[in-house]
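Quick one, T. Sequence first:
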Amino acid sequence: SETMQEGPSQSEGEIIHRDWLFSIEGKRFVNGLFKDGLGSPGILDKPFNPPNTGVEIRELKIQVKGKMAAGKTSTLCNLSGLAVPASHWETTGLQVLGCYWPCHLRAGKTVIFKLKFWDCGFTAAKKYTYLHEASSDKPDVILFIFSMTDRESFQQIQEELNSSSDSSTVKMIIATKCDLILNHQVTKAEIGALSIKHRLPVYMLKNVNQPETNSSKQNEKNVAKLKNDLSEFMLSSNWRKRVKQFSATSRFKVSEKRVLTSASSFRSSTNLTESQKSQDESPKEAKVSHKPTCVDDKHPSYELVADMLNGIKYAVVESYAKRAQREEEFDLNYSMNQITLIPKDFTVCRTFNFSSGGVRERTEEEGVLGPETPLEGQFDDISTEFRFADYAPFVFANIRSLFGYDTAEFLDSLTKTIKLWELKSPGKSASFFYFSLDYKFIIKTVTVEEAHFFRTFLQNYYQYVSRNPNTLLVVFFGLYMVQMPGTGEMFFVVMNNALGTDVIIHERYDLKGSTVGREASDQEKLSEEVILKDKDIKRKIKLGAEMKQKLLQQLEKDTKLLADNNIMDYSFLMGVHRGYQPRPQNSPQILSASSDSQGSQGSQNSGKHTVSIFKKDLGGLASGDGTELYFLSVIDIFTLWNMKKRMENRVKSLMYEADAISAVAPAHYQKRFVDFMKLRFE
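Structure tokens:
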């Protein structure tokens, strides 16, 4: 989300005192004129209640333009000090909202602006032309509003500005819904180009309806800055000259890469529009099951990705700094790769507050922020505040080590540059997937319920994968949380990419052992990237008798862990590469799939697992006849057999055969899952 970050409170050449309204003198002035004083910071209550005072009052007619559902009503409520409605409805007829806005001039005079916002509903304007004519008749200001989540609304504003020839009327642009980052359809580069082309300031606002939240308070400050700018423009003899002056000063502290706000957008957007000329890299088809989108500094999700990667980088480095302290404090005996864990390590959460000035860690016991630590040069993309949490860092450090990833390799793969590949989940979940540039790792968003469950499941999961080097369970390398200003907490995991290989994946399957809804649509099957399901698979997986037995044995063990922890609805992910030609190579030491003790001993001696028998051939498993490669993993292991799934089972059992639906009890799900795989393997 975007916020205006205030630098110096007063810039040379400004007409008004921007902080006066919040000063003791300003508050006394307001309380003497208005019964209820300030309803919200910078917004006066009781609009249209003329004050009994000799202070000059100037009335401004502000015409509002924007597409339906662009957030005009909520924006005008924010500007007028009214509560934002919880639900949306189209404006019927002509709506006029207003408020008073006092300004104290540097010359010593006080002026009160009576701001009246005229908004004509889209349908009403088409049906009753006189309403539109009334709204557009001689406005003092035109306010253009578009939504960051609606590209058509942005294009409509572009067309309006391109066709406008009036240079005397003050014009301002507001971008709404800036907190809905994952749904953004408009990039910073495009906004910057619009701002530069028309020499107009752009203001970034959220649409909030919870008056006590930090997001709402920050939004009120942004609204105050917008109305102060409006006052400056109206008090200036040449408003365009004033806009140009603002763009050349540092009245707002704005990062060129991250924030595009207010009149300073002219400075910050220059680099963005230049970078727009560069071409995105094209992802290699062989790497992933769907074609992702490149997330760089032109992408709407760039700030979220930058915060995630900067948070990971700082948290991982800090955890290793903490390791030395732990060694001295507890006199623990460390091996070269593994950290000796204590029970607290599975529940610990380290929280960091990031800002452009540095990082402050919040102590878990007292919940108090510690001193600020300055950031080094590799964190220069941090320009807005965000909160980041790192869960069980020592546990995940051990898991990374067990599966052959040292800290340097992990960070180099994920955080060397602020760039990832983004993929929206093709399934029913609303998860987002981000792939590292080398496709070794996947960042997947998870729900708060899934994150909380994973924390309770983590100790059992860790003990299991530590003793089972050949496990097919998805391997997790981190659990994190990021929270940007004005947004809720977003949890995500870092995990291995089972299909992250240099060879081409010709077939992809997601198998559960159920049949209801388990078929790709005809439209999906037209794509070479289709993920086929249970009713689509017509082929056998050619393993040979010995490997079939080992694979089924490992599946039995893996799924028993899941069933014992009340988990169901997981999937067997399989990628198939056809035309494999084995290459002579030195075979690594192989552990038996049934040998828990041997696997555990190997980990204790070296701190690393040996290569899994199911990943020994270019990261996959060669078929019995040597003509195919299989890439295998058990994924989606956070779904619990809870009340919601029990209700789903009861409802769907009335419509379908009970054994055909996905939502069944864990023990039943496990048996059906393994039995289905037995029929597929040969």
